[in-house]
Amino acid sequence: MVRTRSVVKAARRPEVRLPALEAYAGGELEPDGDYDGLEFREEDFVGQDGGGARFMDCALTGCALDETRLHRARLLDSVLTGIRGVGTDLAEATLRDVELVEARLGGVQAHGSVWERVLVRGGKIDYLNLREARLKDVVFEDCVLVEPDFGGARLERVEFVGCAVKGADLSGVTLVDVDLRGAAVVEIARGVERLSGAVISTAQLMDLAPVLAGEMGIRVEG
């Protein structure tokens, strides 16, 4: 469904203003830990358990998050820059007023999570699992998303700007004021019929035409 520009509501971007931060004293993350006003720089959190922890007014820069458990963690008013990792567990986590900058992540488990006023800028995320997640006022900007899974998720006021979305799964997704016009690449592997509630450009419509035709059972020849 193609909407006019005036109908689509723009996403509200986060406005993170970090206070003077205290350097993290080191050590492993703690389940249900409370981290407030801290700077985590080049920390190795590989395989650690920070499930249920709260990060408030924090900066995480260059941290390794391979297999780090952050299940049901809360990241609030924070900036994550250059984080990297495979298999990071953010299932049922809450991200609110967060900037994720130049991340290099793979296989992130963020199913059932809640994202509100989140900016994902630059970097690359492979196989992002956002099944049954809720995204509101989220902007993906100048990043690469490889085979993101939005199955059963709800996206409201979500924008894709200058980014490449490759092999997305939109099965069962609900889209409200989702703007794909600014995306450099939009490839949908499954769920193209769920695009109602999104706005795309004429060029994107042409690119998606074969997939849409296949979904509708239209045979194109000649």
Features:
222 residues; mainly beta; 16-stranded parallel beta sheet; 16 strands; disordered N terminus
Question: Nearest-angstrom radius of gyration?
Answer: 18 Å
Written as H for each helix and E for each strand, in order along the chain, the element string is EEEEEEEEEEEEEEEEH
Number of helices: 1
Strand composition percent: 35-45%
Instruction: Please tally the β strands and state the result.
Output: 16
Point out poorly predicted stretches.
Answer: 1-6
Structure summarized in a few sentences:
By secondary structure, this protein is mainly β.
What does this structure look like?
There is one protein chain. The protein has one helix spanning 202-216, and strands at residues 22-23, 34-36, 38-41, 54-56, 59-61, 74-81, 84-86, 94-106, 114-126, 134-141, 144-146, 154-161, 164-169, 174-179, 185-190, 198-199. It has 222 residues and is mostly beta strands. The model is unreliable at 1-6 (pLDDT under 50).
